[in-house]
Design goal:
Blueprint: H1 2-18, E1 33-36, E2 44-48, E3 53-55, E4 58-61, E5 66-74, E6 77-85, E7 90-97, E8 109-113, E9 143-151, E10 154-159, E11 162-168, E12 175-183, E13 186-195
Antiparallel strand pairs: 1-13, 2-5, 3-4, 4-13, 5-12, 6-9, 6-13, 7-8, 7-12, 9-10, 10-11
Length: 196
């Protein structure tokens, strides 16, 4: 009986592998690259004076202003990132930044995290200057997951399983990724990227 159980478990594992069930991001061999796992900030450069630091395995900032900027540039990719913000926070994940030293919402796509933005159409889940959010989402006070796909001119943003943006724009084809601190309390953890 034990042999049969081991055989069945083995078949299930092999079957899952054959049918392409995804491993969690960051696992070896699945194509994902870990950018932030709570042990160091080695994949990032600091731009600005935000007080980014690691605290209990999480990148945290609550003073100043600025970005953690990826050391590498990316063109087509999937990005997964978990974040926590308080209600007043102003943050975002900027992608395909043309100039990693001068980061703006015009030379990057800013996947916004800003629950109290005066124009909520570009609030959390939207991309200011490019795409309004299809579904207003509030992120404050809880852990959230952004899944961002950039492939050619198509950009898709999914927040906590809800697609907020799906549009085409060919202004920016490749660039750095940043984690922004603009106000409030901002935390990031488990940031992974998979080049496509």
């Amino acid at each position: 009986m034990k042999r049969l159980s081991k055989f069945v478990v083995g078949l299930l594992v092999a079957g899952l592998g054959l049918f392409g069930c995804a491993m969690p991001p960051g696992q070896p061999g699945d194509g994902w690259i870990t950018l932030l796992d709570g042990t160091d900030l080695n994949h990032w450069n600091l731009n600005g004076n935000a007080n980014w630091r690691l605290q209990d395995g999480v990148a945290v900032a609550e003073i100043g202003g600025g970005h953690l900027v990826s050391k590498n540039a990316y063109a087509d990719f999937q990005l997964r990132a978990e974040f926590w913000v308080n209600t007043e926070a102003n943050s975002g994940i900027f992608i395909r930044c043309a100039d990693p030293k001068k980061i703006t919402a015009e030379n990057c796509y800013e996947v916004n995290i800003f629950d109290t933005r005066p124009d909520p159409s570009y609030g959390t889940g939207g991309i200011p200057n490019f795409a309004v959010t299809k579904v207003p989402v509030k992120a404050g006070g809880q852990w959230n997951t952004y899944e961002i796909t950039a492939k050619g001119s198509q950009l898709i943003v999914v927040l906590n399983g809800i697609e907020t943006v799906n549009f085409r724009n060919d202004k920016l084809a490749k660039g750095n990724i940043t984690l922004q601190y603009g106000g409030g309390v901002v935390k990031f953890r488990k940031v992974h990227i998979k080049p496509l």
